[in-house]
Amino acid sequence: MNRHSDILIKVLSLGIGLAVGIVLIAKVFFELSYDSFYKDIDRVYSIRTWISQNGDEKDYGQVSGAVSVGFMNEVPGVETGTRTTFVFNGDTYLDEDGNKLKAALVCADTCFFKVFDRPILAGDPVKVLGKWGSVMVNRSFAEKIGGVQECIGKQIANADMDGLKLTIEGVFEDFPKNGSIDYDILLSMETYGKQSTDNWLGNDRYKGYVKLMPNVDPSTLKDVGAD
Known about the structure:
With 227 residues, the chain is an alpha+beta fold. Helix content is 25%, strand content 27%.
């Protein structure tokens, strides 16, 4: 092997080493910054269902519809609570011109942005998420159908249930990719049946979250109804 080849190999090895190092640093930064863009993220907790039956214990990542709201109303130390649930099986949506758009949609309630704060670009999320058939979309989806302001008032529908028209009444900034939540469309929870959203037992299809009051230790929270 001549001297030039030896130098080339060393340069290539150094370049590959630097590239791998940069990738590892980026990955570590990505992991450490996960969900850190939310305000007061240290006060946000997910709610899970723990079942013990006949000596068998199971941990589920979802809860019944009324649980998150119940925590907010009944448990001292909880500032606010929110929940989401998927509605449609497919992720294809039709705009008013029949164009097909891919998007992730969940039902969300009026407290959603009080827990997971994002910049609101148009509309009032409390009003939108409290109105039957209304949706908020992220910036990326809005730009596909005209723009942040231009999309307001337009209707979309899931391709599997195109008779149900959903009206866009608000726009929020996209969720960053280094987060546990990444939805394109939020549909008002009022659109979903009360027999599900107000249910305390069973039908545990909801992702539940609470935001604690400042300086509250979650281990000090009492059970609902505890003395």
